[in-house]
Amino acid sequence: MNGVWQITIPAGGKWSGVVGRGRLVRFTALEEGANLTVLLYNAKDPSERYNMPDTLKAQHTSHLTRGHVLMSDNGRVLASLTEDTLGWHDPIGGYSTRAGTDARYGLTNYQELRNNWLRSGEENLTVELVRAGLGRRDLVPPVNLFSKISCDEQGDMHFVPRHCPKGAQVTLRTEMDTLVLLSNTPNPMDPSPSYPSVPVLVEVLAAEPVNEDDYCLNFRPENTRAFENTWAYYALLG
Amino acid sequence: MAVFNRVESPRKIEDAVYDVIVPAGDGWMKELEPGQVLRIVDLEGNQAADTLFYDAENPEDHYSAIATMTGQGNIYLTAGSVLRTESGKALLTIVADTCGRHDTLGGACSAQSNTVRYSHDTLPMHNCRDTFLLQMAKFDKGYLKRDLAPNINFFMNVPVTPEGGLKFDDGVSSPGAYVEMQAHGRTTALVSNCPQLNNPCNAYNPTPIRILIWDN
Ligand SMILES: [Zn+2]
């Protein structure tokens, strides 16, 4: 497969853009301990967006790995996790905020530190939302690639340190034309006292068509029905 | 945060300034004044009250399931839980709870998600997201589908396993169980009394809830 596009997002960095359906978006952690915060919207109608509860309850999961799909609030598949070397990506830790970033790592600003100041997920995502004609009201729970948060029997949330080795990879296949927002900012539950983000390589490649025996399509009957809803949408759109 | 922090309310029904029954499948939307206390009563038991909150001064800042969970380091809501917006602002604090556990991971049912979870032929069935949208339209303050964030399911039990699974367990609620929360600032509340007929959590029998408000 030939890559069609790539970018490296440094610690604190962000990116947004529309990725057409039928692409592979491969994320690689270039150092150990990455966390990349991701939001997805239907590029044609951004009121349809990644929905954490619908995604988790349809697949009876509180973590994401190969076979899982990222569902929209309209019962469709925005993207599928087709490859994953890590086994657990976090849908419940959320994005970092300005207040949380200042509290954990100390006050930083551009005037003193130039581009080494510490960015927050909240601000990165807000900027990219506004760029797309959206706004703060469109902020919803994101996915944190490369992070693991587990919950014990009491419901207490535990961030798992050293979960992501250097070179960890996860690939999303776009099943719809998708507005993708990325923020390379820390997981808010990462207790590390130093700003821990590491560079993430993003490569976009052409995907093979979804076959009848596709792993994500057949992962659960719910996934099959969400794919059918997606195909029905594109049958109407043409 | 303990799993169940049972706190009974000192408030008396006769002192309430507002009292309404919301039948199964109906919705309710209203602004709370600072300091007001909202009580939702599960009249017959094992009903789900799907609920969203907005900062009425800045409705773009909606309830955030994740800011609420990470703020307390625990995924379940009970007395003591602070309900937060996306920006982290504290909207309300749960001040009484006789149910035991409230879910904020499972979200609302919708026609579209019903087709995914159950079968395509559930599409015509009544659902919480339709109730939310109709309430927003009647409320007439510019709320749109964009403002529908993942909500709280009061009286629902949706446990997460240490292995990363997610289950829908039998309700922990019972007839007359209630949850009560106090608004910090002016706060808009939006409730859908869930009409879900596909999920055994309510024994396939959606029932009414009662909503009361006290001035403090
Ligand atoms: Zn419902």
Automatic annotation (TrEMBL), chain A:
<dbReference type="InterPro" id="IPR017792">
    <property type="entry name" value="UAAP1"/>
</dbReference>
<protein>
    <submittedName>
        <fullName>Urea carboxylase-associated protein 2</fullName>
    </submittedName>
</protein>
<feature type="domain" description="DUF1989">
    <location>
        <begin position="8"/>
        <end position="179"/>
    </location>
</feature>
<dbReference type="InterPro" id="IPR018959">
    <property type="entry name" value="DUF1989"/>
</dbReference>
<dbReference type="Pfam" id="PF09347">
    <property type="entry name" value="DUF1989"/>
</dbReference>
Automatic annotation (TrEMBL), chain B:
<dbReference type="InterPro" id="IPR018959">
    <property type="entry name" value="DUF1989"/>
</dbReference>
<protein>
    <submittedName>
        <fullName>Urea carboxylase-associated protein 1</fullName>
    </submittedName>
</protein>
<dbReference type="InterPro" id="IPR017791">
    <property type="entry name" value="UAAP2"/>
</dbReference>
<dbReference type="Pfam" id="PF09347">
    <property type="entry name" value="DUF1989"/>
</dbReference>
<feature type="domain" description="DUF1989">
    <location>
        <begin position="21"/>
        <end position="184"/>
    </location>
</feature>
